[in-house]
Design a protein that fits this description.
It contains two helices and 18 strands. The chain is mainly β.
Length: about 325
């Protein structure tokens, strides 16, 4: 049989060119590196070492070139790879460190049998630090099963698992996830940026150093202007199928402080019937207790949204006291 052994360098390879092989691949940017193809056609091995200029990835793919669906595998190690430089819609500045393993047969989602795992550690997406991610899954008989999904990012603990059919006709199944954060302040860089300095937390020496660097201390915020803390938990259920995915869930907040605004507690429930539809049906209900917003206090508040394919409505209500109530209701239609 034919045995090949070919290698070459990637001077500057545009990942966008891969969309010609499969339309809709969410890739952009470019990489450099080297590629080697070796082995008999029925057991071909492709290895690649690529770099995005900051991080790198070592990939190995094995398959039967004469019958690709008879069996394939993928192994990959990522080191400081920035997902924002390669995937549209993700902010740049992150770093992925981890590994992916996948082995399977079949090329059609309804008949393929695939088993895979992914883990990452000491990583980040934009300014969000990701401590750990672990995912084990398999695809068989048209069902995607997530055996284990855990993650810890910026103090948020996520745990989940379950099963979803690839097609709606496969029957009901669910993927369930629970997220808990005991310290929302760890998420502050996402909302307010990094390296925040509050002038009323500085000592005399720190003030002198900043002044010598030409920084106007009067332009710095007070600690109350950049405060963020509280506790949150959420339960999310994905249902339906991968081609018509729905989601429902609930969330609660306790002791929320955001800048100079605060809420003693808040609760919300939501449901989306078709996440990837052209006009996403949405139902949302939220309530808050003891709220301070822009210096004004409210005893409670409520927001309800019901939006479908033909539009919907939104209703808002805020109570400052028994004799002072603000309420509004209107039609909602998004282009």
């Amino acid at each position: 049989g034919v045995v090949v052994d070919v290698q070459g360098d990637l001077a500057t390879f545009s990942l966008g060119a891969l969309t010609a092989l499969r339309d809709g691949l969410p890739l952009e940017g470019s990489v450099t590196g080297s590629v080697r193809v070796r082995g008999p056609l029925w057991d071909l091995v492709v290895t690649a070492s690529v770099s995005d200029g900051r991080g790198s990835a070592d990939l190995e793919v094995g398959f039967d070139l004469l019958d690709p669906g008879s069996g394939y595998r993928l192994e990959g190690d990522l080191r400081e790879l920035d997902p924002g430089a390669l995937i549209p819609g993700i902010p740049e500045g992150g770093a992925l460190n981890g590994r992916i393993d996948l082995v399977g047969t079949g090329l059609h989602p309804d008949s393929a049998r695939v088993r895979g795992s992914l883990w990452a550690t000491s990583s980040g997406v934009a300014s969000l630090p990701v401590d750990t991610v672990a995912l084990d899954f398999d695809l068989a008989d048209g069902l995607l099963t997530v055996d284990t999904a855990t993650a810890r990012a910026a103090g948020v603990e996520i745990l989940g698992g379950g099963t979803l059919p690839v097609r709606t006709a496969r029957g009901p199944a669910e993927l369930r996830f629970r997220a808990v954060s005991d310290s929302l302040g760890l998420l502050r860089p996402l909302f307010m940026g990094e390296n925040i300095v509050a002038k009323d937390t500085l000592g005399p020496l720190q003030r002198d150093v900043l002044a010598s660097e030409g920084i106007d201390l009067g332009s710095l915020p007070d600690a109350a202007d950049v405060a963020m803390r509280g506790r949150a938990e959420a339960d999310v259920v994905f249902h339906g199928s991968l081609d018509r995915l729905g989601v429902r869930g609930s969330a609660s907040l306790e002791g929320l402080v955001y800048r100079r605004n605060l809420s003693q507690g808040a609760r919300a429930t939501f449901a989306v019937d078709d996440v990837f539809g052209e006009r996403v049906p949405l139902r949302l209900s939220a309530q808050t207790d003891s709220v301070l917003v822009e210096g004004r206090t409210f005893a409670s508040g409520a927001l309800d949204v019901d939006y479908g394919e033909e539009g919907g409505w939104v209703a808002f209500e805020a109570h400052r006291g028994p004799e002072e109530v603000y309420a509004a209701r209107g039609h909602l239609l998004l282009d």
